[in-house]
Amino acid sequence: MNPSTTKKSSPVESPKKARRAALRVLYAIDVSGLPVEKALADTRETLREEDDDPNPYWEEVALRVRGVIGQLEKIDDEIRVLSPSWRIERMAAVDRNLLRLGIFEILDKITDPLIVINACVELAKEFGAASTPGFINGLLDQLCQNHDIPIAQ
Fold first, then answer.
1. Which domains does the chain have, with CATH numbers?
2. Which pTM was predicted?
C-alpha cells in the first residue's frame, strides 16, 4: 500500500470518528440485539469496507462501547431521571444511544463536558430527527447541572 494514499486520522478527527463509530455499534446492539464483540467486529469491518481505517481510533471506540454497556443500567437510570415524561423505550434508538454515549463520557470524565455535549449535538444533527439536537443538548446540560459538573471551565 502506498503510504501517500493511506488515510490517517488527525488527533482532532480521532475522537470524532471514535464517537461516531461507537454510536453505530451501540445502535446495532440496541436494535438488533447483537453481542458487544460481534457488533464491534462487524462495525470495524464495515468501516474498512467504507475505506476508513479504524485502527488509529479503534481503542477509543471499544472503550466507549464497553463502558456504556458495562454501565447500561446506571446510564439508563440517569436518562429516566433526565426525561421522566418520555420513557426510554419510546425514544428513538439514535436519541437513546446518543444520550447513553454522552452520559458515559461526561460521568466517566472521558472528555470535557462541553466537548461531549457539542459532539453529541453534531451527531444528533447528522443522524437524528429535527428535534434531536435540542433534546440531546438539553438533557446532557441537565445531567451536568444534576451532578454539579461545570460545563465551561
1. 6-146 (1.10.940.10)
2. 0.89
